[in-house]
Amino acid sequence: MLEKAERRRFSAEYKLRIVEDADKCRNPGDVGALLRREGLYSSLLSTWREQRRQGALGELRSRKRGPKPRRSPESRQIEQLERENVRLREELRKAQVIIEVQKKVSRLLSNLETDDNDGKT
Hints:
The protein is mainly alpha-helical. The chain folds into two domains: 54 residues, no CATH class; 43 residues. It contains four helices and no strands. The longest helix is centred in the last third of the chain and has 48 residues. The radius of gyration is 36 Å and the shape is rod-shaped.
């Protein structure tokens, strides 16, 4: 039975060493020989050089695959609390409107009762 091929993972130190070794190559074909010896594609070397130019190669480390978290847990919690705050403020506003209406209805009813009592006496 054939074994399933496993994805190669390269450490930050290895990537940095390969980029530096490639930069030291002066004769035609030296970079190609380096890549063949290491079993690498030229596209990897290009990617690693670009990462070094952007300053990321020095801080490279093994990372988990998949989408990167866009927000910190704290920012997600802040966003959730802000949404809850807006919802609760709206509920409070509605409750205050209802209380004001109840006060007006109570005043109207008490005015009607006093008017009825005034007319009967």
